[in-house]
Write a structure and sequence with these properties.
There is one protein chain. This protein has about 220 residues and is α+β, with helices and mostly antiparallel strands. The chain is about 45% helix and about 10% strand. A four-stranded mixed sheet has the order 1-4-3-2, with helices on one face. Helix 2 packs across helix 4. The longest helix is centred in the C-terminal third of the chain and has 19 residues. It is globular, with a radius of gyration of 17 Å. It starts with 13 loop residues before the first helix and ends with a strand.
């Protein structure tokens, strides 16, 4: 289940990664300013739209939402859900006909309420929606997941310590690697700067691995 990734955006492939020239690290001071003072209620409004899978949210909105998470009370990049194993078990049983995909959706929704940028929950939720012939919801969830991945992709190229991919969840590191089409191998925690280096398995692009910075 952890290796499932039913939606791989076409713009996020290794060949394009090699040619990537435009990216920008999140400006946390600017993001903080955008979400404070007279705009203090903006984050909550954007989050409400995200949770209803509003497809009109822009990339700028997603950047405020995703990286703005690091500015919220109780932020924890290691946070996970106790329902994770339940979701995976239900999904496996639903695939084999021993459970209902509606139960998969129910548990996935509960997790996404707490972890709105959790790609590994969006993924089975999309698949379950397709299996339930709810293609409208699946399309919205695919866009949501694609926007999250694109937001991370636009933060760096991951090739050096000074141009890492910026993430607000350590789980997004592995998810990002798989979305790019690489297979994670081993992780090396760097000594400073909240940096992780993920080595990837042998690939056609000769890429050894990627750097991630956890906010």
């Amino acid at each position: 289940m952890k290796k499932l990734l039913v939606f791989i955006p076409s713009f996020l492939i290794g060949a394009m990664l090699l040619a990537q020239t435009s990216f920008s690290a999140p400006d946390m001071k600017k993001i903080s300013k955008s979400l404070s003072g007279k705009n203090a209620a903006l984050y909550g409004r954007l989050m409400n739209r995200l949770q209803t899978n509003d497809t009109t949210l822009s990339l700028n909105d997603y950047q405020l939402l995703y990286y703005g998470t690091a500015l919220q009370a109780g932020y924890n990049p290691q946070k996970d859900s106790p329902l994770r194993d339940t979701l995976y078990g239900l999904f496996s049983n639903a695939q084999s006909g021993r459970a209902d995909f509606r139960e998969v959706k129910k548990i996935a929704n509960q997790i996404l309420e707490q972890l709105p940028f959790d790609i590994r929950t969006l993924d089975p939720s999309i698949h379950a929606s397709r299996m339930l012939n709810d293609n409208a919801t699946a399309d919205k969830l695919e866009m949501r997941m694609g926007r999250i991945i694109e937001t991370i992709y636009n933060s760096g190229d991951g090739r050096t310590e000074t141009t890492p991919f910026y993430v607000v969840s350590t789980a997004n590191e592995v998810d990002m690697l798989r979305a790019l089409g690489f297979t994670p191998a081993t992780i090396i925690a760097m000594q400073s700067g909240n940096l992780d280096f993920w080595k990837v398995k042998e690939n056609d692009f000769g890429i050894d691995g990627f750097f991630f910075k956890v906010l």
